[in-house]
Amino acid sequence: MIKGIYIHIPFCHQICHYCDFNKVFFKNQPVDEYIEALGIEMKMFEEKYKDQLHIETIFLGGGTPTSLSPTQLDRLFQLIEQYIPTSNLQEFTSEANPDELTREKLEVMKKNGVNRLSLGVQSFDEDILKRLGRTHSNDHVYKTIQMAKDIGFTNISIDLMYGLPGQSMEQWKDTLTKALALKLPHYSAYSLIVEPKTVFYNLMTKGKLILPGEDLEADMYEVLMKEMESKGIIQYEISNFSKPGFHSKHNNLYWDNVSYAGFGAGAHGYAQGKRYANIGPIKKYMDALASEAFPIQSTHEVTISEQMEEEMFLGLRKVVGVNKKHFENKYGFSIEEVYGQVLVKHINDNTIISTDEAVFLSRKGRFIGNEIFQSFLMD
Does residue 354 lie within any of the structural domains? Predict the structure, then answer.
């Protein structure tokens, strides 16, 4: 059953220095034509999989969905309503830049069923924001959040980043103080990963990117967890914190390793046991749809062993971990049968806790999550 929809908007008015997602500058791009192409892809997908669609979440990501004009957003929503069954929809999220969300855009979103906003704030230190290639100010953040609340949005999340070039612990603490003062129901916080084909990667290869060391980054993560906990914002995943009832339902689909569809240039999906990636270049993506072909670049049929790997390294991201009974019902083997030696190692070094119901990362384990996840990959 396909429960989630991800829709990729690959346009940006400004490219952030750390971003490696499929994106292009907005100017001179065939934006209107791209939106119509999304409609064609959604129509084709609905016709092929209509008996398997039980859509509970929709997520607009990018790029920058709010780079679209109100008219373009409204057209996109019309196509979603036309081709995506939404009778079971629980959560409809749009990413947004604080300096691009006008009242008109927010009203278009609200009118068309968007009920969750995810704002790319990253930092409340404006020097750091410039270093990241961000164009908003703190004033944009405050005004946009208040405007969204005035229009009726109650489920608002902001993204934060730490381990940034030149970032001190004092700057990170100040960002957390300002973020928590907003009293929002959800926060995401990620450490910087320098990816190839980004401005930061090019600077790093030239020795011009000065990053906090691993120890300081770990200390920042510790401060993050303590500050969130002190304000009653509960950690439910390695990088995500919320008040009760405000978990990201869409992201939980990924961590629960269930099927979802990805629409748009460079989008990824997981349907009928296959992971697929769409064509990335916008023109080639649109050309494929113009010829009534699915715009798929590559597919991979996920083997049972790969499914079990994914169940573990995705599920262990969640604080509640991987449910043992669910794992055994799904795959016909207990977690201990498949991963006995690996589990014993991590239990002994106090990075994983195993109960009768589940296995999950200890607080110590959250600091080295990626290392632990890799240990569940089979040769």
Answer: yes
210 and 342 fall within a common domain: no
How confident is the model over 63-102, as pLDDT tens digits? 899 999 999 999 999 999 999 999 999 999 999 999 999 9
What is the extent of the structural domain holding 225? Answer: 2-254
pLDDT at 378 over 90: no
| pLDDT confidence of residue 19 | 85
Whole-model pTM? Answer: 0.95
Q: What is the total count of domains within the chain?
A: 2
pLDDT above 90 for 25: no
241 lies in the same domain as 352: no
- Alpha carbons within 13 A on the beta-carbon side of 265: 25
Q: Which of 103, 107, 182 is nearest to 142 (CA)?
A: 182
DSSP state of 242: E
Distance CA 203, CA 99 (A): 27
Q: Report how far residue 305's alpha carbon sits from residue 303's, in angstroms, rounded to the nearest whole number.
A: 5
| Distance, CA of 262 to CA of 198 (rounded, Å) | 23
Same domain, 324 and 239: no
E strand residue ranges, the chain: 2-9, 11-12, 24-25, 53-62, 91-96, 116-122, 156-162, 186-191, 234-237, 240-242, 259-263, 268-271, 274-278, 296-301, 322-323, 352-354, 358-361
| Spatial contact of 157 and 187, defined as CB atoms under 8 Å apart | yes
